[in-house]
Amino acid sequence: MDNFGFLKVAAAIPHVRVADCAYNTERMKALCEEAAQRGVEIVAFPELGVTAYTCGDLLLQQTLLDDADEALAALIHETRKLPLVAIVGIPLRHGSTLYNCAVVFSQGRVLGVVPKTCIPDYGEFYESRWFASGAGISDEHIAVAGQQADFGADLTFEVNGTEFGVELCEDLWTAIPPSSHLALNGAKVIFNLSASPEAAGKHAYLRQLVVQQSARTIAGYVYCSAGCGESSTDLVFTGNALIAENGTILREAERFSDKEQLVVADVDIERLEYERRRNTSFRMNEAATENTVIEMEIPEALRAAALDRTIDPLPFVPKEEEHRSERCEEIFSIQARGLAQRMNHTHARKAVIGISGGLDSTLALLVSVRTFDLLGLDRSGILGITMPGFGTTDRTYRNALELMHGLGVTVREIPIRDACLQHFRDIGLDPADRSAAYENAQARERTQILMDVANMEGGLVVGTGDLSELALGWATYNGDQMSMYGVNASVPKTLVRHLVKWAADTERDAATRATLLDIIDTPVSPELLPADAEGHIAQKTEDLVGPYELHDFFLYHLLRSGYGPAKTLLLAEQAFKGSYDRATILKWLRTFVGRFFSQQFKRSAMPDGPKVGSVALSPRGDWRMPSDATAAAWLRELETL
After folding, report:
1. CA dist 343 → 272, 363, 375, 479, 533 (Å)
2. Segment 134-149, tens digit of pLDDT
3. Out of 29, 116, 493, 567, which one is annotated catalytic?
4. What is the largest CA-CA distance in the chain?
5. Per-residue confidence (pLDDT) for residue 388, from 0 to 100
6. Catalytic-role residue among 21, 101, 118, 169
7. Low-confidence stretches of the chain (pLDDT beneath 50)
8. Can 47 be counted among the known catalytic residues?
9. pTM score above 0.90
10. Taking a C-beta distance cutoff of 8 angstroms, is the pair 353, 464 a contact?
């Protein structure tokens, strides 16, 4: 089974008894077995987990050190048939010096030993009383569990093609953590064996550290800390465990739990490699120092059908409730500031917008209103033009008018039916021929009206098309594809809907709020074909090109994550389980890939517009693609699915 570049990792929090090494390693063995059953490939345990962290001066006792080494040897032997790598914390002697170490082993073999570099000696920590720093140790060997193993702070390990590194507790809290160098030398995942007692407010800071370090190193970061059973003489240990990937927490343990925990997540190694390739700053510092890489192959683990990670079906939409309003406000401000700069540069004091009663033109109008308020201009300088055509319904027509009146902009109505019929006669098109020419003539007529009115008024045409439409090419070339400034150019449809909903929730005028909510509930449509017999929208975009929530998901993962069709399909199946079956997702994925390549020529000629998120399609910025690039490789992969 193809794992699509995912590495299943775990942070294990066993029960411990202080100075009872046999008991502690027995609990580790049980969690290793559970991890193997769940398909985990690498599992990490807390700092000094073999002895327990809180042994104090017992750590200097030969009896405890000998017992720890024997217990570790038994653990390595008893887990030799498990298809995983384990990382265990233990105090080890090297010459006459004691080190706080992480032992990496698999299949009965010790792969290497990493000593802790930064030894704290402040507050509740007095580790320098017992341990020496491993800084500078390289190319040495150490006796451990009856074996001789590589010993050094610069070690990295490669298992089945994935390189990882190890640091211990305090190492993360320093100005330049060892993991920074390990990542630059090739480690895609960092494991941190920690103890870290609890203190009020500390957990929030710890989460920030883990998130930031995973982002700075463009890596997975697995943090595992001591839990139930450690001495509470002066400190309390709550069993913190966090698994992060490039700035995002994938999984975390339940704090203050008296139960053993195995926190499991799939880290996307393929995505990390893609991010490192595209990040020129990271590439500049790669291999800044030399390190020793220890390689090993382990048997393929048992893989679960579902990934141990949450797949967000709406990757463009902000999720954190407490930050949602802040994020929406930020997006609006970016759009408005971009438009304000363009208006100032062109000395325009009027804006011209085609208002259809749909989501995109609504967002563009709201942004224009925000811009005029920002510039101290009267909203009457916003010329909202509704242009009823053959497919305009009473619902969208009414909403367009009510929205413009509610927001206090200038309202103009310029029907396009007669002009289009005249144009059909001029070019010899039968009005009964509902072809692309019939539809596109209406879109181009509307654009001509907007451009000419802008010329008459000394204004600027504000584009309404969004990122999803640009990706699919669902726009008329030199029609609604064109404007003088496209404020929605990098806002996908799912986010447009979310932003308009936020605007409705924060709107003080009840009538305007009601109009916004009805616009949200209106089916997305270009309204270029006549309404049905009941006067309802007959031409529904999502029936024709597919659900926008699927297309936005495809857009994000094919472009932002660099995934191929097969991996995108896998993730979509998990993200939309219960909403769309595999056949439906695959159908629209084929549509997306085909249209994305064939419609690039429209994006190559797109007008300026502000970038608001991590995905944009401007040919001058984030996306450089020839208009005649072929989709052959992507389509061949789709044919195998």
Report:
1. 40, 18, 9, 22, 44
2. 998 888 999 999 999 9
3. 116
4. 100
5. 96
6. 169
7. 1
8. yes
9. yes
10. yes
